[in-house]
Amino acid sequence: MEILIPVLIVSGIGLVAGVILAIASIVMAVPKDEKAEALLEVLPGANCGACGFSGCSGYAAALSYFDMRLPEIIGALAPDDVLMITADHGCDPSYTKTTDHTREYVPYLICGKGVKPGVDLGTKLCFGTIAQTICDYLGVDASTLDGKSVLGDILA
Question: Does this model's pTM top 0.85?
Answer without folding.
Answer: no
